[in-house]
Write a structure and sequence with these properties.
Layout: E1 5-8, H1 18-31, H2 38-45, H3 50-61, H4 69-84, H5 91-101, E2 105-109, H6 113-123, E3 134-136, H7 148-157, E4 164-168, H8 171-179, E5 183-187, E6 201-203, H9 209-214
Parallel strand pairs: 1-2, 1-4, 2-3, 4-5, 5-6
Length: 216
């Protein structure tokens, strides 16, 4: 293995949550008077922490979202996860291989700790992630595209940034990894390759990740 630590994004990389959460986010924003299409949500918010939603709406409209916006949205998302959420195809195979080979890995997500755990529990991915392998934007002051989260995860895992590789599917995540001085493999299953500029490698099938990492 060419790296000492593999840092996974969560949504869209390990759990196939982006179609669910962006559909619900677009619908909720539209419902409360901020017309947003699914495509708008993917473009503007995919891979970001919730504060970006509040910031962009305020910047564009001069209005603040309701105080209970996050609570209502997350309740809808978690309910939908229970009904619909699946792991990304091939993610379990990758985690099984890394675990068997003793390769250190973790998850560093813009989502809350609760969201990460709900998604992992629902899909069965929780067997590969104890608390020491889970990092959230809640743990740092700034979310992606700032490098803080990835740097924090690397420090907690005891690995220098240049020995880390990040697996990401969003432009904001790729920017954060590059800013952290880490290699980043861009997963293009949902995101056009052209939007992941700066990625070290691009791939569109999670099952291809391990061979790529072995050549890192």
């Amino acid at each position: 293995m060419g790296y000492d630590l593999v840092i996974f994004d969560n949504d869209g990389v390990l759990v196939d949550s982006e179609p669910i959460s962006n559909r619900l986010l677009a619908g909720y924003l539209t419902e409360i008077g901020h017309p947003t299409s699914y495509e708008d949500s993917i473009r503007d918010y995919m891979g970001s922490a919730m504060h970006r939603v509040h910031d962009l709406v305020a910047e564009r409209t001069g209005q603040r979202l309701p105080a209970d916006f996050d609570d209502v949205f997350h309740a809808r998302v978690f309910a939908a996860f229970e009904r619909e959420l699946k792991p990304v195809t091939g993610a379990m195979d990758v985690l099984e291989k890394l675990s068997a080979d003793g390769v250190p890995y973790c998850v560093a997500s813009s989502g809350s700790h609760e969201r990460i755990r709900v998604g992992h529990r629902t899909t069965g991915l929780d067997r590969w992630f104890d608390d020491g392998r889970i990092f959230s934007s809640q743990d740092v002051g700034r979310g992606k595209p700032a490098p803080d989260l990835f740097l924090y995860a690397a420090a907690r895992m005891g690995v220098t940034p240049e020995r880390c590789v990040v697996v990401e599917d969003s432009p904001l995540g790729v920017q954060a990894a590059v800013a952290a001085g880490m290699d980043v493999y861009g997963f293009t299953a949902m995101t056009p390759a052209g939007r992941l500029g700066g990625a070290t490698q691009l791939f569109d099938d999670m099952r291809a990740l391990v061979p790529l990492l072995q050549g890192g």
